[in-house]
Amino acid sequence: MHSTMRIGLVTGTMVLASIGLSGCSSIEQQRGFLVDQVLAASVQPGIDNKESVRGTLGQPTLTSQFGDEIWYYVSSRTAQKPFTTPKIDQHQVMTVTFDEAGNVATFETTGMENVVRLRPNRNETPTLGIERGLLEDLFGNIGQVGVPGGV
Predict the structure, then answer these.
(1) Are 86 and 31 in contact (CB under 8 A)?
(2) Residues 13-63: pLDDT tens digits?
(3) Residue 2 Cα distances to 5, 11, 68, 112, angstroms
(4) Can you give the CATH number for the domain in which 91 is found?
(5) pLDDT in tens, 73-95
(6) How many domains in the chain?
(7) Is 141 within a domain?
(8) CA distance 102 to 26
């Protein structure tokens, strides 16, 4: 009976440890365009046009609004550890530029080298005006409401 308790204790400990460790694994998410390298490699400048690119890669993630017509296919994979914010670990942008006739002029792929990590400044923005304290904010309007000729 003593060895049965020991086996049960060891098994229970192993089960609890595996449950605890599974909670520490990262959560991965694919965002945006799902890249198929074979299909992406088949897009050829001078040969393909808008219809063939749309048929091969699908609808672009976004398109240019001004200047030359450019289609962007954006793909990102994020990883998130428990209780943290997601971080991009893979990023790819495929850029397809078209000429006036609608044929592919250029096809480029960029990756993590173009990702910029911004850290916003958390300081206060200086503003013009009167610096008022808490008591002035709370009691500053007493007697001001309903005064004849007041604004």
Answers:
(1) no
(2) 666 655 555 556 778 888 888 888 898 889 999 999 999 999 999 999 999
(3) 5, 14, 79, 58
(4) 3.30.1450
(5) 999 988 888 888 888 888 899 99
(6) 1
(7) no
(8) 43
